[in-house]
Amino acid sequence: MKCILVATEGAEILFYWTDEEFEESLRLKFSPSENEGEELPALEDQLSTLMAPLIISSMTMLEKLSDTYTCFSTENDSCLYVLHLFGECLFIAISGDHTEGEGDLRQQLRVLKYLFEVHFGLVTVDGQLIRKELRPPDLEQRIQVWEHFQSLLWTYSRLREQEQCFAVEAVERLIHPQLCELCIEALEQHVIQAVNSSPARAGEEALHAFLVVHSKLLAFYSSHSASSLRPADLLALILLVQDLYPSESTAEDGNTQPSPRRSWNSQNIPLQPAWSPCSSGRARSSAATETDSFSLPEEYFTPAPSPGEQSSGSGSTIWLDGGTPPSDASLVQIAEDTLQTLIPGFPTAASPQRIFLDASVKETYCPMMPHTMYCLPLWPGINMVLLTKSPSTPLALVLYQLLDGFSLLEKKLKEGQEAGSSLRSHPLMGDLRQRMDKFVKNRRGQEIQSTWLEFKTKAFSRTEPGSSLELLQACGKVKRQLCTIYRLSFLTTAPGRGGPQLPQHLQDQVQTLMQEKLMDWKDFLLVKSRRNVTMVSYLEDFPGLVHFIYVDRTTGQMVAPSLSSSERTSSELGKGPLAAFVKTKVWSLIRLARRYLQKGYTTLLFQDGDFYCSYFLWFQNEMGYKLQIIEVPVLSDDSAPVGILGGDYYRKLLRYYSKGHPAETVRCHELLALHLSVIPIDVLVQQAGELARRLWEASRVPLL
To answer: Which among 240, 291, 548, 594 would be 20 to 30 A from 539, CA to CA?
Structure first.
């Protein structure tokens, strides 16, 4: 039983996501008696009525005591509540099935906030404007917005439980240097250069292009004028791709929400399947039953049983459910041709989306810069993503710098900075006034001019200077005007709302070229994504090692043997209970390591039944020499959880450690390992060091 809610201080619902169990509990609470004959209130009204006392009491405590509760359990531990106030919006997560703890719920709230920032940019700074985006007046548009974020939350929960890269929050690469080099050349010549040299690009400039196979990164290329993409932003983009075009195997594995997905195997193949791609407006409502992305007709084709003799050939056909391939070469070709006609058709490209990612413009850092994302599916499971910027991008940098300056000023006023001459003489004010005067002069809007004039009158008047309260109010008005300009410039004119975008023929051109380049590799890629790294290659040198996850936190990339227990795809551990058991152990180790790291522990080693579980975090320089470990900061329970999607913990940790090593580049690494308990501890520690060295040397090979 679970619910995630975003509300205003007045208990107005801005967004909600609930599962069926939670909705059923609401129906039982609000169902009218038989004699009254009243209709059941709308779900939104039920949530508002249920949460209003909680929201009002929380905001009252914050107003009266400057403090409030952030987590509590109801009577008999029936439900766990986690609350967090971001700006003027209160985020609430509720869990009633005891499957998620406080840290898990807090992480989901921060991921939801991050997704809001990716979609709305600096508009999230202003409480009134973000309300307009999350709760549009038009009911149909509001449902569309809510269903989009409900779908993203469902996809995130599914990937976090099924994919190692989302469990540890790092990007997993497909390791194949030859193919990676081929893809990078294709992305450079046939995508980035082709778009930027086209006269029909309508002012759009291609910055980044990358290929994703299921949830793994195959190749990435950036133009020379583009700034680097943060690992958190890249992982968020992979999340968006998986939401648009979910991988069937992981979607079937997910138990987050019941799904009537029909198994697709050799005994159940539709004669004429129609592939129904998910579009940007597609989402799964938590109240509705999820529909399959395959639209299956009533008629099915059942192939004849295969001959009993095993074929010694190693063709490219994958035989599911233990089927035996035919021995005759002609029959193999017929089978391949038949499957090619029966597999789902190519998915259609989703509409371009306006997204906001961190970037550097003219060597100046700017968070939430507007980009346009084009997700171009090549085949089911293989997608290409293109990121472009518009000619109006420099305006975003100017608005961010002004908003940042007024936010600092607002902070000083709240801390008790005196108004009047001390404020006028502050270095911040002189620079801010000069930049704001220049900006307002180039804008024709009367409202921003009058708002800025009002602020200057109260801030710089020598005869009648405004009080701190008046300056705070005037500062808030200026910030709102700047956010309004930002919203009109980048959200109102987004591609999905009729704004400029690359012409369709140019999108089709780069999509077709990449399909031609990868046509001979597509079957291999789909198999490789499920067997990226095999454990067999490590067993001879590391006896007793069951599984490991190695993460380079500087680049945000990870390496791990494949770990899947689904019916359609499996790792070396097979499909039985052993694979599921090991997977449960690995996920449990990830959660425990995060909790201990939050408390300041960088090394963890314990025995769990027949296994030794270990976790190591260390720092080293670019040459691979290990640096002296320090005491990492201890975080409070209500701080941002360890990860990169909910606050980028590792970037802050690297910045903290680098203060003591200003003369060299510091890198951060993590290793999680699972060993058999018969291995002595000293051998285990020695193996962990050797394994880390081997993986670090392999990671230095430039694949991207």
So the answer is: 594
